Amino acid sequence: MGGILNHRIGSASGAGPARDVRPGTSPTSAKELSRAVQAKLADESRSAARMREFVFTDADFEKIRKLIYQHAGISLAPVKQDMVYSRLARRLRARGDKTFAEYLARLEKDAAEWETFVNSLTTNLTSFYRESHHFDILAEHLVKRSATKPLRIWCAAASTGEEPYSIAITACEALRTLSPAVEIWASDIDTNVLAHGQQGVYSMDRIERMSRERVERFFLRGKGDRQGFAKVRPELQKLIRFLRINLLDRDWGLNGQFDAIFCRNVMIYFDKPTQYQILKRFVPLLKPDGLLFAGHSESFMHASDLLRSRGRTVYERADASRS
Predict the structure, then answer these.
(1) I need a surface site. Which of 67, 247, 288, 313 has the fewest CB within 10 A?
(2) How far apart are the first and last CA of the chain?
(3) Fold that domain 133-317 belongs to in CATH
(4) What is the pLDDT of residues 163-179, one digit of tens each?
């Protein structure tokens, strides 16, 4: 939205010369600008709707918002309507449904399609060593706790595997062995990305930001028809267990406590009450001196009774003793 205000905008009807809008605009001009922006957005929305293959009503979108919130805790903003249409229209084509109403009516009776529905609406942006400072902190944490065996880490939003493998590499480097006493649980709600992570195969452009030494030590380069790809070494794969977990499920199927939990760039999709309930369940799963790693845009100030910030989006239990 902010970018729209920097454009040269004509009258709402499209007639008349374009004019610059600068600070100090009068209230009347500001109102005109607001109407022009709203008209422009409405025109774009109507234009997009005319180009759609399937009828997609506001009621359809609201039902989808309700279903994905109830099933996965994801809060879809109104601006996500076009994204939702684009992703789910593929499902209508694949199933032969004629309308979104037909698809949604059948969805509630089809367990397999429920899984695909959730997979379609989840976002899986990830990379190796994303927010790299967290892995420096993790390495120091693991060295301090190296007497604990095994060290247990839960990656609660594993996506296609880059994050849990980054954790595994960090553990190997910090503890100076390819077979560290570390157990890593890598979970996600999306079964498609979990399958990718289990395979551990990535295009070379996914790992090119890592040092050559790190790539040579922890990856096997593909040959022949696999050229341009690399596979994670078996030693790393042995450290990780991939499993499906919906953070809204009553039972996560996890036993014992963890030395660290990574739940990064996930909470931004939940509203504050849902965030709080999930964080409340994280706390007893963290060891007294365990660490919770969050995404760079996430803040848990609303859960200060549960977690205490250590800075750089790293948290500890609020009842933990200061080290």
Answers:
(1) 288
(2) 45
(3) Rossmann fold (3.40.50)
(4) 999 999 999 999 999 99
Q: Distance between CA 196 and CA 121 in Å, rounded?
A: 17
| 87 included as an active-site residue | yes
Identity at 272, one-letter amino acid code: K
Closest among 302, 282, 298, 299 to 290, alpha carbons compared: 282
For residue 190, indicate whether it is catalytic: no
Chain region(s) in the chain for CATH 1.10.155.10: 26-121
Residue range(s) of every CATH 3.40.50.150 domain in the chain: 133-317
Its pTM stands at: 0.71
What residues pair up with 185 in beta bridges, in sequence order?
A: 154, 241
How far is C-alpha 312 from the chain's CA centre?
19
- CA 8 to chain CA centroid, nearest Å: 35
Q: Which of 60, 188, 190, 259 is catalytic?
A: 188
* The CATH number of domain 26-121 is 1.10.155.10: yes
